[in-house]
Amino acid sequence: MTVAAQKETLEFQTEVRQLLNLMIHSLYSNKEIFLRELISNASDACDKLRFEALGDDALFEGETELRIRVEYDKEARTVTVSDNGIGMNREEVIENIGTIAKSGTRQFLEALSGDKAKDANLIGQFGVGFYSAFIVADEVTVTTRRAGLGPEHGVRWISKGEGEFTIENVDRPGRGTEVTLHLREGEDEFLEPFRLRNIIHKYSDHISLPIEMKAEDKDEYETVNSASALWARPKKEISDEEYREFYKHVAHDFEEPLTWTHNHVEGKQSYTSLLYIPRRAPFDLYERERRRGIKLYVRRVFIMDDADQLMPQYLRFVRGVVDSDDLPLNISREILQHNRMIDTIRGASVKKVLGLLEGMAKDEPEKYQDFWQQFGMVMKEGPAEDFANRERIARLLRFASTHNDGAEQTVSLDDYIARMQDGQDKIYYISAENHTAARHSPHMEVFRKKGIEVLLLSDRVDEWLVSHLTEYDGKPLVSIAKGDLDLDRLEDEKEQEEIKQAEGEFKDILERMQKVLGEEVKEVRLSHRLTDSPSCLVLEENEMAMHLQRVLKQAGHDVPVSQPILEINPTHALVAQLRAEQDEAQFGDWTRVLFEQAMLAEGGQLEDPAAFVRRLNGLLLKVAGQ
Q1: 263: annotated binding-site residue?
Q2: Domains of the chain by range and CATH?
Q3: Which InterPro entries does the record associate with it (predicted)?
Q4: Is 246 one of the annotated binding-site residues?
Q5: What's the pTM value of the predicted model, to 2 decimals?
Q6: What is the spatial distance between Cα 86 and Cα 417, in angstroms, rounded to a whole number?
Q7: What's the whole-number average pLDDT of the chain?
Q8: Sign of CA dihedral 444, 445, 446, 447
C-alpha cells in the first residue's frame, strides 16, 4: 500500500516557540552540548528498539547491530547524527518535536527570569535535548521511519525554529532517525572532525553503543567511543568526570549530580546499581505519576525506562541504572510487580540511597541542606510509604521551629530531642497554612512563655506526615492545636491551683457560651494554651487541621464536618467583658465574635463574614460609649 506524500506546514506549540528562543540565548555559551543531546536521544532510540524486539524479532529487519553515526559535510555546512534505532511514525514526530506534552510547562516558562546563567540551569532541568540543535543550526531536518513499517512510511520534518515546521511522508529504506543540522554562520568549528571527536570523548564516551565516524582519508567508519557500559566497569577505573557525564546522559540533565553511589553485588543475586541524586528538582517532581528515572538492564541489555518497581515514590527523584545478571531478558512490567529478585534489589537500593543521605547529613550538612531545599517535601512522603525504613527516614527529616527565627527547615528530630526541657516527654508541633500563621498562632502562647520548642509545619504534606509518623525515638509527636493539652509536668503548683479555681468560677459562663454556639462547637472550656489571645479553636487529636480541610474543600473533596472545641482565656480583658455582660443578646454577640475570630486565626472561613463585621462594629461602638 502506498502512503500519500502528504506535506503540511504546522505551527509549533506556543511553549516550544518560547523555549527555542530562550534556549538559543541562554545556552549559547555551552553550545557544544547539542551533540551530546542528539547522541543521547539516538542511544535511547536504539535501547527502545532492543527492548521492543524482545517480543518481536522482526523489528530488527535483519540488522541486529545497533549503532550511532556522526557525519559532517564541509561544502553543505551540515552535521548529521543518525541511528538505526526504533524510529518514529508521523504522529510520533509531531508529538515529540512539535509539542512539549508535559503539564506544568507554562509555570516552568514563567519561572525563567532573563538571567542567562540561571535560565540555562532551568532549561537543562526541563530536559529539552532535541531543541538544543537550534543553538548552532538555523535549519534542522529530521528523516525517520519506525521499525516494522514499510519504506513508504518514512517521514521528513524540517524547521528553522522560528514558529513553524513542515512535515511530509517520504520513502526511507532503513529504519531509525537521521537529524541533519544546517549550521549557522560562524559555527564552522563543528565541521572539523577533530572537534567533533573531542566532544564525543568528553560527553559520550560512556555510551554502550558504538558511535561511528568516518576515518579520515578513508571511506569506512570507525568507533570513536569506548562503547562499553560504564556501570559495568570497576569503580577504581572510573573518574568523577566520567560519572558526572554519564549522569547527564541517563538523567537528561544539564547540571552535574549532587552525589552518587555505585555498587556491584554478588552472591545469590548478582546485579550492579549506579544511583544518582540530582542537584536540582525536576519541574514535575510533585506529579507522583511522573517518571521515576531508573533504567533497568539485564546483562547490559536495556529492558525498560522508568522502572517504578525499583524505587519507591518518595525517592522518585533518584536517577540511574540497575543491571541484573539473573532476571530473564523478556521480563515485563507486570512480572516485575511480583518478582522476589526485584523486591530484593529495590530494598537494597533504598538502603543505599538512605545511607548516602545519612552520610551527607552527618559529614556535609550544608550540602544536605541544599538537598533538603530541593527534595524535602518528597522525602516527607516516606514515613507513610516505607514502614520498614520509617525511623531512618524520620532521622533525615528537617523542620522549621521556634528555635530559629527564619522559615528554613533545618531542625532534625534529634536536634529537637537534644534541646527538650527537663520533664518534657513529647515532641510538640503546630501545622498551619504558612510559616507566619504557624509562628503567630494563639496556640503558641503558653509554649513561648515556657520556652518550649515547637516544630512549625506549613507544607501541605505535613498533615499526611504526622498522621503516619506518630512518634520518634519513643517520644510521641503531639499537635499543640489538638486534644487536651497535657502540660502538668511543666506547670508549677501555683499555676495548677489557679487553673482549678478558674474552672469553678467560669462554669456558668462556659455553659451559657455553649448554649449560644450550640452544634457549632463540641465544647467550650478554659484554655491552658493562651496567655495573650482571648480565644482559640482546638480539634480532637485525630481530626484534620482546619487549613487542610479548607484546601481539600476548595479542590472539590468531601470533607467530614468537624466540631471544634472553643477555648477561652480567663485572664483576657475581652473575656472579662463577656463575663460582666448581663444583656443576653450582647452576651451572644461577644460569644460569637470570640468564636469567629478564633476561626479566622486558624485559617478557617466564616459562613457569614458580613454578620461577623456587623457584630464586631456594634460591640466596638458600645465599648466606645456610643
Answers
A1: no
A2: 7-227 (3.30.565.10), 231-365 (3.30.230.80), 398-480 (3.40.50.11260), 506-623 (1.20.120.790)
A3: HATPase_C_sf, HATPase_dom, Heat_shock_protein_90_CS, HSP90_C, Hsp90_fam, Hsp90_N, Ribosomal_Su5_D2-typ_SF
A4: no
A5: 0.76
A6: 56
A7: 86
A8: positive
